[in-house]
Amino acid sequence: MKGKTVAILESRLGRQLADLVGKHGGRALPAPALAEVPDIDHAEIARLLGDLELRPPRAAIFQTGVGTQALFAAADSLGITSRLLGLLAKCVVVARGPKPTGVLRSRGVLRRSTGPCRASTMRDLPRNVV
Length: 130
Known about the structure:
Blueprint: E1 5-8, H1 14-23, E2 27-30, H2 42-54, E3 59-62, H3 65-78, H4 81-89, E4 92-95, H5 98-106, H6 125-128
Parallel strand pairs: 1-2, 3-4
Helix pairs in contact: 3-5
C-alpha cells in the first residue's frame, strides 16, 4: 500500500482492519460510518429461555455474529448465561458463517468446525445441515 491512507468505515472490526492495512504498509484512518445497535427485549429473552427449557430444541441456528453476541450479552446481563449454555450443550448448534462461529467459540459452544456452510438463506440452510 506504500503509505496510502485507507479509510476504515467498519465499526465492528475496525481495529482488525486497521491492523491489516498497517501490516501492508498503509495508514489506516478510522471513520466508522455505521454501527449496529441491538434492540433487545431482556424480558422476552428470559421468557424465551424459560420456554426452551420446558421444550428443549433439537437444533439452534445462529445466523449473524451481531445477533449471537446480542443474545449472549442479554443472557449475561440477566445472569442466565449458564442456562443458555446448558441448553446449547444438549442440541445441535449450527453457525451460518464465520462471525457467529467466532462468538460461539469464544463462549466454548463450538470446539470444532465441520467446514463452511454454503447456505445463504434460511430456505437453503436445511439442505446444508446433515
